[in-house]
Amino acid sequence: MIHCAEYVKPDGRRLWLYGRRPPSPLGPVPSPFSTAVSVDTHLRFHPLLREWVIYASHRQERTFLPPASSDPLAPTKDPANPTELPVGDYEVAVFENRFPSLVPEAGPAPAVEGAETAAAVGACEVVVFAQDAGQSLGELPADRISLVLEVWAERTRALARAGMAYVLPFENRGTEMGVTLLHPHGQIYAYAFVPQVQAHAAAALREHYERTGSDLVADLARGERDRRIRVVAAEGEVVAFAPPFGRFPYETWIAPTRSVPDLAGLTAQETADMAVALSQVLRRLDGLWGRPMPYLMTVNQAPSDGVPHPEWTVRIEICPIRRAPEKLKFLAGTELGAGVFANDITPEQAAADLRGVRL
Amino acid sequence: MIHCAEYVKPDGRRLWLYGRRPPSPLGPVPSPFSTAVSVDTHLRFHPLLREWVIYASHRQERTFLPPASSDPLAPTKDPANPTELPVGDYEVAVFENRFPSLVPEAGPAPAVEGAETAAAVGACEVVVFAQDAGQSLGELPADRISLVLEVWAERTRALARAGMAYVLPFENRGTEMGVTLLHPHGQIYAYAFVPQVQAHAAAALREHYERTGSDLVADLARGERDRRIRVVAAEGEVVAFAPPFGRFPYETWIAPTRSVPDLAGLTAQETADMAVALSQVLRRLDGLWGRPMPYLMTVNQAPSDGVPHPEWTVRIEICPIRRAPEKLKFLAGTELGAGVFANDITPEQAAADLRGVRL
After folding, report:
1. CA B273, chain centre distance (Å)
2. Residues of A in contact with B123 (CB under 8 A)
3. Domain end: A194, A211, A232, which one?
């Protein structure tokens, strides 16, 4: 069960506060900014890669690694120095990014000689996992992680209803991953089109579905559970495993063994199991070398493009970018130039290493 | 005109020394390693992304940021401490990487339960632009840069003859880009298959060619030359421009205005012009904030898969990863998770900024 209260900030951005119990009503909610943002963003089509590129000049000014004493994601202590969040008994908060790449009411795209353009319709939201800046997602109690999964499901549903064709919850974790605010948080990007990565995946999954009658990711989760050699954690009907073809060192996927296209389709038990598995994986990644693991985590749900997706099962993908205690994995020539990733660690070794971490 | 001498290192790797004049004959050539490397590498197929992933466990041990006093890419001064290169009057050197992801004589791939595997056939070569560790590629005289282009053309031709379906010369520049050896150098990866990025590009280019009768990249180079708003440098029939749909801040492409599928197809004059344009671009990027710009540079030639490629014109793509003097561009949620890049700087602004740099 999840309760939500919606507010509007002084600069016009929306804020949603979530809890297991209804959050107590609040007066006006804060914002570090008093006036509406001037958003200058549009899309251009890359004809060789056949994907859209976002241009968002105003984002150059976004908040960049403020000191802990002025954490904009902590509840406002001093009304003279408002943060993004109010004091209150909510557990998880979501608000519209002050520096969005995509916006619900995007203005018309400029005409650009030599490029096809489009309005940057979409949404960019910030998801704050907890009021306490000191706890990472994996360190939170399992029920809080479960609440985060439910918030992602809820925002996905709401953005799909608002016409978004694809909703991507993700977390960039660590300054090595480009994080500019240290308070643990995730983001949600919603696109008015199905992005190229998801369009390709949908085509591949559809082919598998037509050939086998079942979906590749749930098949994989069941296969990995039964084979056991690449399992990182298992809880109920949810399996965390190093995918047999992972591109990143210690890459881990978490998926149900049953065909479910999105988070909203999981049962309450499956959501709880996924939260436990996610917590296990994140703590094992941090435990590997006794230091926070920088990673990209994405929640890969079926497109919300109005057609059913029996070929697609939701998975959480965690892509770490540290390949050894003192060495990062960089994406460079072969990865970015050719799309061919070089991984120094086999999935079998990665899973064994992660299973060996004592929690 | 380019002269080449081939040698074999004590550990069995090949070395090619290039010059405008025939390099003087040498005795035995050095290697920091006395015995053949044990290469443990194979490919696995990623069924959602439909691309190959390389597993190369032995690469974890590769040389990592040695001190300048033990530069393995400088000529050997002390025979008791051999580097990768001999003393000699050569200008550019290429040798087989000691820690390759792909090798010409790859052993059979292991059977892996749950994944399709293949032998990691290919090549990984290191290209040393100059004996002097103090000069970056852009700082070298134009004729040396031209020689580097000719060496890339020569190695591409040789690897294609050896059966490689795609040859990718590139430079990762800067520790921010993951460089592990500071002596300026590039790399060449050769694949026995056409990588996914190039396969997609070829399909898009083919569609343009069939629709218009000309190829997209040369069309673009001519269009940008004539429009002038995104030109960064122009020399003869070669144009350097910010592509109207660039994904990286200050992304710059260099291409001839004539349809030419690969470097080997350029005339001597076009090669010389491309070298001048490349030098201009690299020095303008470094001049932007008075500090070396970290970037990925790729040379995008047509596949060498045995069919003609009238749809494809060679281009050099330079993708910088610094978006402001103190801020890097990170690839994270939307870029890696969806393939939708967010760029803070429009190509028109990028080109104007780069043109404004005083050299």
Report:
1. 18
2. none
3. A194
